[in-house]
Amino acid sequence: MIIKTIKNIPGSEITDPLVFQQRRTLIKAMAAMMLTGTSIRTGWAEDSKPLWSAVPKSPFSAPELVVTPAAAAKNYNNYYELAFNKEDPASLAQSLRIDPWSVEIGGEVEKPGTYQLEDILSRHTLQEYIYRFRCVEAWSMVVPWVGFALGDLLKAAKPLSNAKFVKLTSVQQPDTMPKQRGKAMLDWPYVEGLRIDEAMHPLTILAVGMYGDILPKQNGAPLRLVVPWKYGFKSIKAVVKIELLRRPPISSWNKFAPNEYGFYANVNPDVPHPRWSQNSERLLGSGFFTPRRQTELFNGYGEQVAHLYRDMDLRHFF
């Protein structure tokens, strides 16, 4: 496949001083929610603004997109550590322990270490990213995430020149995750990977919130990856470990069914899944008679990311 190369996104960032003033308040609010397991909205006046209503919009966001209703996005989840259906994770996830939370960063870096989530947040400016999200199962949604660029976190660890790939690992908590406890389907914990240039791209983020509030547990709290031009299974939930490697990691779904789930997992309507077409997608939260949306190459982010795959055959490297 020949990919037309279009200019890259500018690398500028928006920083609002209000974010810095509120950061400690936000961290305390997150800690309180994690400790009690209750909603960040509990006890607030009905007319209270969402926790992150003042967070600036990312220049890489797409404000023209129609956002999926929050209830739909929060109650239709793939979280195979908990259940194989879409409805049960919302309730089963509430037993997950997410406080305290730390992330280990290691591998081919100058500054390996383990960092508490509140320390990570204190060093990064949160922004809102309105992104398309496309599942490999041919449904999609539009989510306003709150987070920060994964690349900024990796830069702080100072990757070595031989670091070519990034491996991310999810939490291992079999006492609260039924499918982990039963060792069902995949080899747990869940693992995903990116090329380092994909990980460093400004569209790639680590999310801590959605819809202006704290990220729900069933959506990957307290910290998940979001890569909007790839199928959703790449956007690993509940990240506890990040490693920079010389060689590509073996990701969970690619290991389980390599003919169905490629390492790259770029959204590509011209490469069908072995059991269904990827030409179109069902919009989550839409009515029964709503037409399916035509799937776009790179999920509509080709202008920003096509140059990453300029000389690659995307049918072979799917």
List the helices and strands and how they pair.
Elements: H1 17-36, H2 70-74, H3 89-92, E1 102-107, E2 113-116, H4 117-122, E3 127-134, E4 139-149, H5 150-157, E5 165-170, H6 178-181, E6 191-195, H7 196-200, E7 205-210, E8 213-214, E9 224-226, E10 239-245, H8 252-256, E11 280-283, E12 293-294, H9 302-305
Parallel strand pairs: 1-10, 4-11
Antiparallel strand pairs: 1-2, 3-4, 4-7, 5-6, 5-10, 7-8, 7-9, 11-12
Structure, explained:
By secondary structure, this protein is α+β, with helices and mostly antiparallel strands. It is 19% helix and 20% strand. Strands 3, 4, 7, 8, 9, 11 and 12 form a seven-stranded mixed β-sheet that branches. The model is unreliable at 1-25 and 31-47 (pLDDT under 50).
SSE order, one letter for each helix or strand:
HHHEEHEEHEHEHEEEEHEEH
User: What is the general shape?
Assistant: globular
Mean pLDDT across the residues is 88
Strand coverage percent: 15-25%
Largest sheet: 7 strands, mixed
- Contiguous runs where pLDDT drops below 50 for at least 5 residues: 1-25, 31-47
Number of strands: 12
Number of helices: 9
Q: Please identify the structural class as seen in this structure.
A: alpha+beta
Rounded Rg: 19 Å
Helix content: 10-25%
First CA to last CA: what distance? Answer: 11 Å
